[in-house]
Amino acid sequence: MLKALIVDDEIASLRTLELLIGKYEQHVDIIGVAHSANEGIEKVKQFDPDIVFLDIEMPGGSGFDFLEGCPHRNFDVIFITAYNNYAIKAFKYSAIDYLLKPIEVDELHQALEKIIKQRYSQFDGRNKYYALFENIKEIIPKKLVVSTDDKYECIDVSAIQLVEQTNSDTVIKLADNSQLKVANSFAELSSLLEERHFAPISNSQMINLAMVRKITNKPTNNVQLRNKQEVTVKPEYLGKLNEVLSKISK
């Protein structure tokens, strides 16, 4: 049985979450509730929860203030928020679980199942909270958290040269010529990185345009990256690639 603490100043939202967990999540026991960040910090000391359901915006201190007040975190966090706001982007880049109000039963179950799986496999999730505190300061997050076999890895987005799908694996290639096989899908990473001036060059590869050294078109359309690695651009992706590069260079 996992011990859960709810930190939320909205009584209706708090009661709804209590009812959903009580009815559908028999392996989770709500051991306390708090209505502010400071009260939540005290309840953590009192109850030592496994999971904290944490509202973002509360009077007297935000959910991030709560986390800063718990420097030695032995619990997982599921953020809850009424708005698809600025923080959601930071959550996605940092691999942080979150629920939008009104909370849907299926989304609650998926978030809990993910955490339970990681806890029982002794998955190391510390890096994602480091990345969250970095990313929440930025309009466009600079850290990307990816999942490997046994932990989260925190990567500087600017250090990524190439992301590719090879058979059933997704591989991230970095500027120092190292590479990382990750559990994230190629589609998932593509949706996150496209706003950071990454562009697809095929249906299984995308490149960091800041890493482009030059483009050649003989005998094929190739991109040479900063480490002098060359990758081929599929003809149907060439026009869009040139268009994006032109916008960046202006």
Automatic annotation (TrEMBL):
Gene3D superfamilies: 3.40.50.2300, LytTr DNA-binding domain (2.40.50.1020)
Keyword DNA-binding (UniProt): no
Chain coiled-coil ranges: none
Domain of life: Bacteria
A single MF term (Gene Ontology): DNA binding
Phosphoprotein found in the keyword field: yes
Pfam families: LytTR (PF04397), Response_reg (PF00072)
Entry-linked SUPFAM superfamilies: CheY-like
Stretches assigned to the Response regulatory domain: 3-116
PTM annotation (4-aspartylphosphate): residues: D55
Keyword annotations from UniProtKB, A to Z: Phosphoprotein
InterPro entries: 2C-system_Tx_regulators, CheY-like_superfamily, LytTR_DNA-bd_dom, Sig_transdc_resp-reg_receiver
Protein name: Response regulator transcription factor
